[in-house]
Amino acid sequence: MPPGVRLRVLPSGDGQVDLAREVREGLLRARKSLPCRFFYDAEGSRLFEQICSLPEYYLTRAEDEILARHASRIVAAVPAGAALVELGSGSATKTRRLLAAHVARGGRAAYAMVDISSSVLEDGARALVAEFPGLHVEAVAAEYQDGLALLSAEKRAPWLVLWLGSNVGNLDREQAAAFLGGIRARLAPEDRLLLGVDRRKDRLTLERAYDDAAGVTARFNANLLGRIDRELGGRFGEARFRHVAHYDEHAGRVEMHLESLTDQVVRIEALELEVVFRAGERIHTEDSYKYSDAEAEALATQAGFRLERAFTDGAARFLSVLLAPS
Questions:
Q1: Is 63 in the same domain as 190?
Q2: What's the rounded Cα separation, in Å, for the pair 288 and 284?
Q3: What is the bridge-based pairing of β-strands 282-289 and 305-312?
Q4: How far is it, in rounded angstroms, from Cα 163 to Cα 87?
């Protein structure tokens, strides 16, 4: 790694521990499912970067607009010398807005990035220290809770924690409050959390965002089966499943599935498992919950935060909420 970068891979990084276990458990359930955190191997991360530039996928542009306008104000919410700590950083494209404002405050700055994919972290960290010579990067390949625990044990300065991109939407509302409560437990009074939240909106806009005309999201979803084939000796063959995205307006969530096109039996060699599918049977792969403004504030309150500032884009599609420990 280049000077200024330290990369650590914890047991939960790159799905080292539990891909096999989760695949077995998920595909043997009555309602088959696979955890969305396994989307992000190198190929899945590459496809997600493509998704972020699609015309239908408004989330990235809306959040970037907010950060372009308000980065200095957001960074000023924590003391000079604070560290930025990002969950699910990926390649940290949008985060550059905040990093530029952060570095401009005091020259040398610290940034910690936690992501499940070590290859994405390594590429992102190399690019960042080349772009920001005064930056020190701690990269931790791990699930969020594991990465936060490691960084918290080494904490030496106030934190501005970043959880961008509406990643909170991958958890149901009860899980989201519990996870945010876990972050809150690691924060001091001077720390802050910047949370990206996608707002509720019309069905057509939401379903297009998760089922684009070019089929990139379909390939991203199907790559989960490709990963099982590559890493566990699966025999899925992506052509025998189709991508399905549906907005449940009452629940306020977009659901993603992979639907079997035929009656079939799929063998997974590493698990010595054969999985039976009926034509039309689905594997649930992801939920993306959407929030009204009132729901976002209630979530923060339930998790032990108070809403300090709320920012939105010009079209009012997305919220970035700055939260303080209450």
A1: yes
A2: 12
A3: unpaired
A4: 5
Which of 71, 127, 137 minimizes the C-alpha distance to 104? Answer: 71
How far apart (Å, rounded) are the C-alpha atoms in residues 181 and 166? 17
Query: What range does the domain containing 95 cover?
Result: 5-9+52-201+291-325
Continuous segment of H or E residues that includes residue 48: helix 42-51
The confidence score (pLDDT) of residue 16 equals: 58
| Residue ranges, the chain, pLDDT below 50 | none
pLDDT value of position 15:
62
User: Which residue has tokens 């791990």?
Assistant: 142
Residue 162 and residue 226 in one domain: no
In a domain, 26, yes or no: no
Q: What is the pLDDT of residues 22-55, one digit of tens each?
A: 999 999 999 999 999 899 888 998 999 999 999 9
Residue 158 sits in a domain of what CATH number?
A: 3.40.50.150
CA distance 317 to 300: 19
37 to 12, 89, 219, 279: CA distances (angstroms): 11, 13, 16, 26
pLDDT recorded at residue 239: 72
CA distance 20 to 195: 31
Number of domains in the chain: 2
